[in-house]
Amino acid sequence: MDAMETDEIVARLKAIVVTVEPEVAFIAKYGGTLVESVPGQPKSQFCGIFAYTNHVSLEFTNGALLDDPEKVLEGEGKHRRHVKLASLSDIAGKRCEDFLRQTRDLP
């Protein structure tokens, strides 16, 4: 995966996040981008986007609570789950917008 494709995936994910939750704040932290639903409120972080050499990871703060019957989400921690994206088509194929809408609606 080249840097241009990585940048395209990150840009597309950010655009989807804004579509799902228009008032978000993107915070550069931990080598990636954290997303706050209430700007300036770290406790409102609901996802993060992190670029790696071979994939981009879309991480969900409370991913363990998301409905995932196809077992798309990865991770086995107490709370967090993530999706690894190696191409633009993975964004739709791995239901990123659906997961973002679900995580936005969590209490």
TrEMBL record:
Pfam families linked: DUF1801
Residue intervals of the YdhG-like domain: 8-102
Protein name: YdhG-like domain-containing protein
Listed InterPro entries: YdhG-like
